[in-house]
Specification:
The protein is built from three helices and no strands. It is mainly alpha-helical.
Length: about 80
């Protein structure tokens, strides 16, 4: 007796759009945190924001991971086998 085909996981269009929104938002926050010390005039505030560079890099990596997951879902939905619906 052959095994049944593995279940396919389908994601809704809304879930994909929310994932893309999260990716863009995280990348923008990361860029803002990393670039803002160059535009701040106050040396004290500039040092505080520059100390948060680790948070900026984390937001960038998280945003890129969300973007990669979005692209993976997008390409997986376009490359369905001919027999599945």
């Amino acid at each position: 007796m052959p095994l049944p085909p593995p279940p396919t996981r389908r994601h809704s269009n809304k879930a994909n759009n929310e994932l893309l929104f999260k990716a863009c938002l995280c990348v923008l926050i990361g860029l803002a945190v990393l670039v803002s010390p160059y535009f701040i005039k106050s040396p004290g505030m500039q040092g505080i924001v520059a100390g948060a560079a680790l948070v900026g890099w984390f937001a960038m990596v998280l945003g890129l991971a969300f973007g990669g997951l979005y692209l993976r879902r997008k390409f997986a939905s376009t490359r369905r086998p001919a027999g599945s619906q």
